[in-house]
Write a structure and sequence with these properties.
mainly alpha; Permease; single chain; about 325 residues; transmembrane helix; globular; 14 helices; transmembrane
Amino acid sequence: MALYQKFVAHTKLRRVVVLFLLLLLFYIFRSMLSLFLLTFIFTFLAYKTIRKLRKFLPVSSFILTIVLYGLVVYLAYFALTKYVPMLINQTIQMVNSVVDFYEQTPAESNDFFAFIQKYIEQFNILGQLQKSATLILAYIQNFGKLATAIVMSFILSFFFLIEEKKTWHFSRLFLKGEVAWFFEDIRYFAHKFANTFGVVIEAQFLIAIINTTLTIISLSLMGFTQLPSLAIMIFVLSLIPVAGVIVSIIPLSFIAYSQGGLHDVILVLIIVVVIHLIEAYLLNPKLMSSKTELPIFYTFVVLLISEHYFGTWGLVMGVPVFVFLLDLLKVKPITHD
């Protein structure tokens, strides 16, 4: 009993044990990881949105929650019935344009693109694209699971926010009793997680929205078609720090060349570079805070490791989780508003 009391009194050791227990639970329920992460993201973003709306609208959180989620459901229904069929057709056209570019005989191309094709063949990029296509087919087969996770996460976040006060009041009951220290440590990690991971993922979403908007406006001025499918591709890639910008250049350059030749490719590269500079020197310092920025080397290492172990989710969540761990270990604390 004395050993147990010493363990409970040793806060640092206790929290390390609790953290490993939580990681073990996440590993056991790793098949539900998408549900957990999506629920947190939906809840966090909706909670932040409602708080900001209440500063301008003298309306209760209950009503704002119903209106916000009702609006999301309406927009989702509108998108599924009107834009999804069009999006599928445009995506097929976009993929066909990329394939047509690759299959073109380089004899009539300039030396630059002959050089690019040589390297494409050297690194067997076509084989990599085939592997990617196989992976995409696997994702399509698992689309039902992903759709279910999105719907369930949306419903869970709605119920959490619709009864926010009641939920928090009931949750505080766990801080009483024989193992109150255990739930106190869970609250400590949850608070840290929300204030670091949440802040970074919110900023990442805002940066992705701004990047996508600026890029799509620029591409529309250049006369690009298939803008809705391009917008989705750019938004998803913008959620991946640093690497997303580099990856997005490849399909955009292919489409630009098939549409307007080398001139359009150069314009696309200039647009991407300018938007990346805006992100690096304006958006990141303003939205992320300079204390959360990572050197590019660390960013790529984190992305490589997280993608290896967690797949696509690792690319999106790797950097925010790494920042959370840095804050937790007090290596590089994040600045909170």
